Amino acid sequence: MMEIVPDLVKLLRAVRLVIFDFDGVFTDNTVLVSQDGNESVRCWRSDGLGISRLRSIGIETLIISTEANPVVTVRANKLKMACKQAVEDKAQAVLQACMDLGVHPTETAFIGNDINDIAALKSVGLPIAVADAYPEVFAHVAYRTTKPGGYGAVREICDLIFHAKEDTLDLVGIYAA
Amino acid sequence: MMEIVPDLVKLLRAVRLVIFDFDGVFTDNTVLVSQDGNESVRCWRSDGLGISRLRSIGIETLIISTEANPVVTVRANKLKMACKQAVEDKAQAVLQACMDLGVHPTETAFIGNDINDIAALKSVGLPIAVADAYPEVFAHVAYRTTKPGGYGAVREICDLIFHAKEDTLDLVGIYAA
Amino acid sequence: MMEIVPDLVKLLRAVRLVIFDFDGVFTDNTVLVSQDGNESVRCWRSDGLGISRLRSIGIETLIISTEANPVVTVRANKLKMACKQAVEDKAQAVLQACMDLGVHPTETAFIGNDINDIAALKSVGLPIAVADAYPEVFAHVAYRTTKPGGYGAVREICDLIFHAKEDTLDLVGIYAA
Amino acid sequence: MMEIVPDLVKLLRAVRLVIFDFDGVFTDNTVLVSQDGNESVRCWRSDGLGISRLRSIGIETLIISTEANPVVTVRANKLKMACKQAVEDKAQAVLQACMDLGVHPTETAFIGNDINDIAALKSVGLPIAVADAYPEVFAHVAYRTTKPGGYGAVREICDLIFHAKEDTLDLVGIYAA
Fold it and tell me: Best interface-test mutation with B: which of C26, C31, C36 has the largest number of B CBs within 10 A?
């Protein structure tokens, strides 16, 4: 880790749209598979408070997922978030979302955990990886969370952006990736 | 951590009512989300023995939860505990519970894990945070458990109060937050 | 931990009956509680191989549980083990099982994890605690497993007894509690 | 761990068929048992990307499991993999699979985690154990994964073989078992 990068604060303050990969970001990247074919994923209760605080200051949020899976819909609905599933090309989906919402990619954050997120990470102003992402991802991000996916990573990102926007960010211990 | 605070023992002995937040206290703060929308949470079997020992010496217990969720009802029923859900203002709910039960707030413990518990923690005589609470919470508590939420934190608190009341508390290794 | 106690090997060789507590021994002591009231517990796949090897050399096994819970029945059936549930007095249940099977308590092992197992542990020749048992338990056991409950503790005990009986025990790293 | 063994790279390049044990390899070796007898296992989402990359370069894959369990079928179907269940003799099943597919055992990898995998491990050119396998297994493998079963071990093996085949293998930090 490098020393704190003032640019990171600038990037956080510029954010108007936050786009999340689902598995490994909202979840711990495991899936519970039952014998009758039902899938369940493990999420972090405190993510909800972070997402709703972002909403309260007008930040747009979106979940993008490669797979079409009802569990993503269920979680997105619970968090009152929009989601796009069965996304073949995440970078393209990011750009489309920016256009739809009238937000510039430089004002957009993308959070991923695996190599199929790299193109999307390269397409935004604030690329972020969860603490336990695949190592190939870290070369392409401006920030690596301290919390793993499914254990507070989403909340951590929400808190960073919220406090940067509100000018209440505690810079101690915040480093660029 | 500071050295053991004799006041902590006094506070433990004074307790007549113990109020718990649910997610992150009775659970590890994760939620299992199934594709059909069913939610499950992970609890600690040995909490039950602690709660029933508190009951056996006349201590009142209560669960307070922001969200209205059937899983809280299920767990509270299993532990034979009262619960209040869909609570917007936890501090207000704590005071109401004190009035209903005729217990003074200084004789009340509240256990939380997140920033939306801070007002409630400030309103009671014995504010407690679980080991893995959000760091902002620790400034407002008299005790931080050694066990994380969902992995023995509730039992630990029950044991502390039980042994303080019974005068069998082993003070070795007990420190104020 | 003390140095290896030759008596431990003797105790292992004498065992004809192994009685297990369920929660915290066969499981990691958590319970998954769903919103419709269904409970699930987390078990270790490799316990099965250990139990079946004990059976193959004529060792009796039994699960004793305080609570009456269908999940215990389900797991016991899967492992082809007998189980007694809704047991108020575990020590009494241990002695009864010894009588029923014609095995002396000194030829019996009991494995527990919490303070309500202490009386049963005191009643047998080979009292064992899982690695992550409540500390009060350790004063009453001859062996503490290296693996936690639900993560190989049962298999470890089965392997120890099996290899002691077969005279293939690798004593390196085996210590009394 | 020894230094990197050039032979390991040769073995990886020779692989045409990869056979996996299921529990403890695709899963973390736990099983969630519900009170109505339903079993669930915990898998790693990112295994799918690894398996599909192997498929894309013509490597055959197969799951072999001792137990007949619908959960194996469910996971195999999701990953579009073949599976053989209720396999009494894994070494025999490995040889049969080699014959069926016209692949020599020396061009085959087998991944296991427990002592009942040892005969199968001995029968192939590239025997592999997951990081958290039973220690008895390690004497019989050419490679031990850095990731545990159910937490990326399968993906790690897929990546190793893929990059060895594509000549993009990063040898830093890769050691023989």
Answer: C31
